[in-house]
Every structure is written in structure tokens, then in C-alpha cells.
Amino acid sequence: MIEKIDWQKCNNLIPSVIQDAKTLDVLMLGFMTIEALNLTISTNKVHFWSRTKNRIWMKGEDSGNILRLENIHLDCDGDSLLILVNPVGNTCHNGTKSCFNYKANFLSQLEEIIDDRVKNQVDESYISSMQKKGINKIAQKVGEEATEVIIAALNEKDVDFIGECADLVFHLMLLLKYKNLTFNHVISKMKERDKRKLKDENYEK
């Protein structure tokens, strides 16, 4: 991949978009020299060229908020990178997760709200009350919502069907949270099954 980069075109400093591998949120934009890119690959920790310090630096070398490398993609022109990472702590120096006021994944936002309501119990919160009732009540609610999805699917009103689907997904997320899991665990399993499906294996195994 490195040999395909047009270093001359980008003046030996390639723009690198940093994206959270799980939530797909864009975290920051940095610039890499070939040395910084090689260090990123060899250490699995993202390194940049600092235009203010005029040297290579590892993201989080002072704060500890490093970016663990997941994958690297080169664009079609060979002059910019998309780097997927698993961030440790907040990425922005202002103390926020991202340098951009932007989130790509609504489900990840909802999971953050659910997590907050579980950690910081609020009396009037439906999420907090369901967590207090325990796994039996949450699982029962998932079953009820699944039944309502089936009933709505057999009716002609798509708006009702979509609403019931939303209720089912929401309560499924509550159940996942109770078991200390996230929707990404489900997505990972689906991706794993999709690979097997390409090999003519049973998707549901």
C-alpha cells in the first residue's frame, strides 16, 4: 500500500482521516510522512507529523489517549488515507471524543444515552426503570415487541410496522446493555455469517 502512495503529489505529507472503527465517527484529520506511516503500521499506534512541533509524534504520547490501528485504506488518487482506529479515551485535545461536532452512527449515540441512564439512575427515566426490573422483564418486553412487529407486518400500514420495528430494536439494545454487550457484537456476528454465506454455508449457524 505504501508504494502506491503518490508522495510527490502530496509533498511527502499525506492527509489522513481518522475514523472510529466501531461507530464510524470521524475523529480527526492528521498528516503523515512515510516515517510516521511506517511507525503507525509497525506499532499499531497512530503517528503523525506535527507541523507545529516539526517532528513525528504519537497521538496520545502525553495524554495517553492513543489511537490503536485497525485498518488503513488508500484513496483512488493515492494522495489521502482513511485510517480506522479503536480510540483509547477522547481524541480531541479539547476533551471531546471527536474534533468534529458530528456523529455518523445514531445507534452508537443511543447506546451512549442508555449507558448513561444505567450508570446515572434517573427516577423518571424509562431506561433506568427497565434496568432495575431486571433481565426477565426486559426479555419479556423484547418478546412482546417482536410479536407486535409480526402483527404490524401483516397489516397494510407501513408506518405502524416501522414504529414497531423501532420499539423492538430499542428494547433489544436494552437487553444487550443488561448483558454488557453492544450492537457491534451483533453486527460482527452478521459479518462473520456473511463470510460463511459466500462459501455456501448456512447463514444461521
From TrEMBL:
Cell division listed as a keyword: no
Alphabetical GO biological process terms: L-histidine biosynthetic process
InterPro entries in UniProt: His_synth_HisIE, HisE, PRib-ATP_PPHydrolase-like, PRib_AMP_CycHydrolase_dom, PRib_AMP_CycHydrolase_sf
Keyword ATP-binding in record: yes
Pathway given in the UniProt record: Amino-acid biosynthesis; L-histidine biosynthesis; L-histidine from 5-phospho-alpha-D-ribose 1-diphosphate: step 3/9; Amino-acid biosynthesis; L-histidine biosynthesis; L-histidine from 5-phospho-alpha-D-ribose 1-diphosphate: step 2/9
Alphabetical keyword list: Amino-acid biosynthesis, ATP-binding, Cytoplasm, Histidine biosynthesis, Hydrolase, Multifunctional enzyme, Nucleotide-binding
Pfam families cross-referenced by the UniProt entry: PRA-CH, PRA-PH
Domain Phosphoribosyl-AMP cyclohydrolase: 28-101
An annotated GO cellular component: cytoplasm
Record-linked SUPFAM superfamilies: all-alpha NTP pyrophosphatases, HisI-like
Phosphoribosyl-ATP pyrophosphohydrolase as annotated region, ranges: 107-205
Protein name: Histidine biosynthesis bifunctional protein HisIE
